[in-house]
Amino acid sequence: MIYQRSSQLFAEAEQVIPGGVNSPVRAFKGVGGTPLFAKSAQGAYLYDEDDNRLIDYINSWGPMILGHAFQPVVDAVIEKAKKGTSFGMPTELETQIARLAISMVPNIDKIRFVNSGTEACMSAIRLARGYTKRDKIIKFAGCYHGHSDSFLIAAGSGLSTFGVPNSPGVTQGTAKDTLLAHYNDIDNVKALFEANANEIAAIIIEPVAGNMGCVPPAAGFLQALREICDANNALLIFDEVMTGFRLAKGGAQELYGVTADIVCFGKVIGGGLPVGAFAARNEIMNHLAPLGPVYQAGTLSGNPLAMAAGLAMLETLNNDTAVYQRLEEKTAYLQQGIDRVLRENNIVFTINRVGSMISVHFDAHPVVDFQTAKNGDNDTFKKFFHGLLQEGVYIAPSAYETWFITDALTYDDLDFTINAVAKVAQTL
Ligand SMILES: *Cc1c(COP(=O)(O)O)cnc(C)c1O
């Protein structure tokens, strides 16, 4: 495969954009080499500026659950764009998507739309702090909740790729209110509550972690967090930016039967446009301005293009009763195939999967938290990544990322991918 034009475009971008990219994980720092520049995409395929075709397992980091340029979304956006792209006034469309989202997700009465997952999580903890009148939050090492200050503490993916445990620019004052716990370690969480009695506003968690590879919650872990929060009058925030509308209509709450107090969304809910949202029961959401004292706002929040894209996406997911089953079956098929060919080549590995989220780790031990995720052999991952790229299979350029399976993938695509993995495995 030739990347001549991509390399040239990257060199030009580096002159005017820090690192040549507008989001760090795109830069291939974790795997070496220069990033591909996208030209177009359709269904399960990406086409780069050198006209290489790639089977896409990133899917814009999650939103494209039904494939790229999904027709109902494209049509909805074009239709709306002709009538004006933002008004700074409410539109009926916002009520429509809010109603639909609330009908799909358990335990929420109201939802507020923002422009990114970062904004959703940032606003959710402000709301939790305002509601509980407490300052501290617990987050888990390896979980990513966007790049707002409170969360840039052992935050997975981009940060782990670069080995930056914490970001300069985050003040000590902010960092001291974020307590760090180990994923899947309930005793650790209990100890933090004991040491900070009546000070913890909320626990925020990716109910299935997706930013240190895919790390499922241990049996009973989410339920135990629910009970600890109830016992301590703290809120449980599920960051479902990745899992929401992906693992089930009602996300991880539905899949695991555990109720969160505030739920954050992004990615799929925007159908590929910049959208985030956070939602909760009335008693919590009514604390938000203009009803209540907790302030949150946005010039382009709920804009018609984003809402039209999100509504078309959610309507499709809501009406297609078999979509989550298909995603489950396709991803299980991929998992079994990769498992088989890696074994045949005596590769040391672990595969984690929940629904259509999957990750391959080059380590023999179970990957259950950030520490065990970091044990993976990064040199092998780099070879794996570049080998697959040569075969026309595009996975995330970091050992700490989940692959997102799209319904646009055919079984031929999956077989092609498994064959590519078999070929690459011989070189590892
Ligand atoms: C992607 C992601 C975010 C941040 O969303 P942005 O839209 O990139 O700001 C937050 N939480 C989780 C779990 C995510 O995967």
UniProtKB/TrEMBL annotation:
PROSITE patterns according to UniProt: AA_TRANSFER_CLASS_3 (PS00600)
Cofactor: pyridoxal 5'-phosphate
Domain of life, source organism: Bacteria
Signal sequence, start to end: none
Principal EC category: isomerase
EC number, UniProt record: 5.4.3.8
Keyword Secreted: no
UniProt KW Iron keyword: no
Sites bearing N6-(pyridoxal phosphate)lysine, chain numbering: K267
Gene Ontology MF, one: glutamate-1-semialdehyde 2,1-aminomutase activity
Subcellular location field: Cytoplasm
Keywords noted in UniProt: Cytoplasm, Isomerase, Porphyrin biosynthesis, Pyridoxal phosphate
Family: Belongs to the class-III pyridoxal-phosphate-dependent aminotransferase family. HemL subfamily.
PANTHER family listed in its UniProt record: GLUTAMATE-1-SEMIALDEHYDE 2,1-AMINOMUTASE, GLUTAMATE-1-SEMIALDEHYDE 2,1-AMINOMUTASE 1, CHLOROPLASTIC-RELATED
Binding partners and assembly: Homodimer.
Protein name: Glutamate-1-semialdehyde 2,1-aminomutase
GN (gene name): hemL
